[in-house]
Amino acid sequence: MNKLSFIVIGFISCSFLFAQTEDQKKDKEINKKVEILLKEMTLKEKVGQMSMIDVSTFIKRVDPHGPSWGPMAEPHTLDKDSLQKYVINYKISSIFNIGYHGYTVQQWYVFMKDIQDAVNQTRLKIPVLYGVDAIHGAALTVGATVFPQELGMGSTWNPDLVEKESEIAAYEMRTSNVPLNFGPGLDIGKHPLWSRLDETYGEDELLVSVMGEKAVKGFEGDKNDISDSTKITTNIKHFIAYSFPLSGKDRTQSWIPEYYVREYFLPPFIEALKAGAHTIILNSSEINGVPVHCSKYWLTDVLRGELGFKGCILSDWRDIEKLYYLHHVAPTYKEAIHMAIDAGIDLNMVPYDNQFMDLLIELVNEGKISESRINESVKRILKLKFELGLFNKPFRNPDNYPDFGSGKFRKTSLQCALESIILLKNTNDVLPLPKTSKILVTGPTANSIQALDGGWTYSWQGNLGDQFAPNENTILKAIENKIGIDKVSYIRGSDFNDTTDMSKVIDAAKNVDYIVLCLGEPPYAETPGFIEDLYLPDAQAELARAAAKAGKPVILILTEGRPRLISKFEDKMKGIILGFLPGNEGGNAFAEVLFGDYNPNGKLPVTYPRFPNDLMNYDHKFSDMPDHHWSYDGYNPQYPFGFGLSYTTFTYSNLKIEKDTIHFDSNIAIHVYVKNDGKIEGKEVVQLYIRDVFANLTPPVRRLRGFEKITLKPGEQKTVGFSLKVDDIKYVGQDNKWTTEEGDFEVYINKLSGKFYLKK
Predict the structure, then answer these.
(1) From edge to edge, which strands make up the β-sheet containing 514-520?
(2) Is the pLDDT of residue 12 over 90?
(3) Label partner for 550 (CA 20 to 30 A): which of 124, 278, 302, 522?
(4) Whether 306 contacts 738, CB under 8 Å
């Protein structure tokens, strides 16, 4: 090593130490400010900091003398009497949500000014923290960049795109003066019936972990300096094991062994916390009979103790109160508060009244909760506000954010949408379609922006997209723009659940070359997204069969937030293209893929089932596969996890594992050749799966242990390498601890396989 190398290394080391010192100094200064402020606070002021109120509580009503739940007046404005009650009198900490619909950045600015005017009338002038669900961009702000839902981003298998999306969302959230995002969602989408599947990156913990870590970095920045005017704080959700309800319905109970929770549901949160996530929100339901909102084990022993989390823990909507009236583990609301605060919750999403604050004060005065426990939570909340820079600048002028809703942001959104589109079927290379073709477009999702966006877009249920984004291209408009309106005819054919003018479809098909059939789901979020049947509704299946009877090739375009079953008519479709709610650029993306201007490269982040009672995940056990022939070939989805076609052909060869025997202190080096044998450039997701052949706790058939997305020109070949640590293939045993055992392991990449022996 030469002298220059020592100088460079020394410079890097000194810079690192200096950065550490600066970070530590800044943290120390904030802690000092928090302690000084805390000493000045009364108990009422402290309890106010632990309270988060829904903004609809403050919005003026049509009848100012009517009930608080009466219709909201348009345009939405804040009521000074309500601000007086909660902000000035009760010193509330935080506000969240929107009213009936989203707001422009100027409306947000007025809201924040009104709130800050109320804050300035309080004794300590502690700024209010505002939060909303920005799960696919700042989509509750009118004019913001709307990206694919998380499940769509999971379909890209491109972590860098997730980071870029999150950076843009953070910028546009700050433009909106909303520095707290209830996201990213780090739930593992194990149950396809679940109405929040679209809020996950998929069913695999590695995929979700990698995407979640990148999302945190995008929102908070590499150094997690959330005082930056373009960064916000993440609120990772939902801790823990929310997404595998026994019934498949939202906010219903789960029964999951602890080893399974730790191995599958905990890792994404571990990685997000390593990435510096500042806050965390909880599972609204219960695991094994214990509501998470009162689980001292998961919140204090595991989250605070084992994982070392020092940030804020938030309740979800009204979930502390639900310990009393829904879960029936507390005889009164007051006791529910006692249990939740004792378990470790810092900030309660109340959401509508002051009862929580009054009862919490009573509990402290009665000695049931110590004021020192209250101080712990208040310190965390105050520190977060200092870290966000709210004491220095509680709100910002949106005019200082010139890139809001910009063309360059839209370009990134289009790239996300393009990479999220999955080609599932292409019989006899029917796709891409010639641009000279005459096309009949039909189906309930063909001419709807909200069907592309899904929930949490311009409103909670996402049902206002056609109103707030009228100039965005639907699938129909994008096709018309692509090949010319004179070549396109449109008949709706059916609504989501009812037939309309289906008979006209067969007549119109006589004059076209192809039928583009657009099916899927209406927008929804949370509980209103409940369904009893994973099959697409009968009306849509009937339309699909009618289109097929017309005698022209049918190309099915699916837009949905979960895999709705199509096995009743799948065999009649010549081509199938899927988008898991690709956002405002989704129509353009579908048209680009449909006519070959973009080569599809999305891959399924979930298993696509064939039948409603056969919902096996890809990482199932061997014993899950018995069939009626008494054999074990029962894994038979419509399309498997990780599947997705291309307009080019990729060939895999020369899978090599560096060593046949690998010791525990060594890395596992694996590489494979991938070649583009087709005539056009394409992207391919190289997926590495490993099987533990025998283990003390039954092993899954295979697990995703690595992936990389590459781009290959025609005829180009690349070597793709993976280097795993032994810890990367460990599992949680019967004692609920991570373990690795000696033995044989099998490796799978595409259709290639190999083996190695792991030795101590």
Answers:
(1) 422-426, 575-579, 554-559, 514-520, 439-442, 488-491
(2) no
(3) 522
(4) no
- Bridge-based pairing of strands 129-132 and 286-287 is unpaired
- Specify which residues 645 forms β-bridges with: 423
Residue 27 sits in which domain range?
7-32
CA distances (Å), origin 325, targets 268, 281, 329, 443, 635? 31, 21, 9, 43, 41
pTM of this prediction?
Answer: 0.95
| Domain total of the chain | 4
pLDDT at res. 18 = 54
Could you give the CA distance from residue 434 to residue 142 in angstroms, rounded to a whole number? Answer: 36
Is 630 within the bounds of a domain?
A: no
Q: What is the pLDDT of residues 243-289, one digit of tens each?
A: 999 999 999 999 999 999 999 999 999 999 999 999 999 999 999 99
> How many other C-beta atoms are found inside a 10 Å radius of the C-beta of residue 73?
15
**Residue 617 domain flag:** no
Whole-angstrom distance, CA of residue 506 vs CA of residue 544: 11
- Identify the burial level of 702 via C-beta atoms within 10 angstroms of its C-beta, where 0-12 means exposed, 13-18 middle and 19 or more buried: middle
Residue numbers annotated as active site: 316
Helix (H, G, I), strand (E, B) or coil at 526: coil
Each residue's pLDDT tens digit, 348-371: 999 999 999 999 999 999 999 999
* Owner of token pair 């400010």: 33
Q: At 679, which CATH number?
A: 2.60.40.10
For 150-177, write each residue's pLDDT tens digit: 999 999 999 999 999 999 999 999 999 9
